[in-house]
Amino acid sequence: MHGATMTWDTHKEQELAVLLERFSGFIRSHIQKYNVQRLGLDVEDILQETQIKLWKIIQNEKKIVNYTSYIKKIVDTAVMDFFRRFRREEEVFYHEKNKMIAEINTGYDSDFIYGRSDLKDLVAKAVENLIESRRKVVKLYLLNLSIEEIALYFHWSPHKTRNLLYRGLLDLKKTLKQNNIDYEHRR
Fold first, then answer.
1. Is the CA virtual torsion 40, 53, 156, 28 positive or negative?
2. Which domains can be identified in the chain, with CATH numbers?
3. What pLDDT digit, counting tens, does each position of 61-74 carry?
């Protein structure tokens, strides 16, 4: 029984090695299309995450018909996971920085000034109420992706992406104003 498990594991490891050898250039070039280095992210980290996701799929014995398309989706998911993680870390850093500045400058509780979770919830709900195409673009934009990166992700033209983003942001602005939030005058 133990020998059968070793054979199964060895077979799966060989399958992964063949896939990585066959698609390593494709995976690396697809990661680099996102220009992750501009955020200080490492291509090798995303490559490793992609390999882990591939390994899990192989272990689960999922039948893959079109490897190129499937691997592209895996890379896209891995890159988006890193962008989201980067964005969360950045938000924590800026929140803590603003909290310290507020405490030093005003002596007030900085959560009152900067950390209003109800405001964040209201913005999140407003984004969720956008029409789907605009919502998808606005969400990625709020994760600090550029119009070009969003266009690349959805395989749209930059012009279409820009229009959806601007319309989505206008809709978001209207919703926030209806809820008495004037974000343009906030600092």
1. positive
2. 2-82 (1.10.1740), 116-187 (1.10.10.10)
3. 888 888 899 999 99
Tokens of 17: 């090695």
Q: Is the Cβ–Cβ distance between 78 and 49 less than 8 Å?
A: yes
Residue 51 sits at the vertex; the CA angle it makes with 47 and 52, to the nearest 5 degrees, is 120
CB contact at 8 A, 126 and 176: yes
pLDDT of 99-121, one tens digit each? Answer: 655 554 444 444 444 445 567 77
Contact predicate 18/28, CB 8 Å: no
Distances (CA, A) of 161 to 60, 96, 156, 168: 36, 33, 7, 10
Q: Which two tokens stand for residue 49?
A: 């995450």
Helix H or strand E segment including 17: helix 2-32
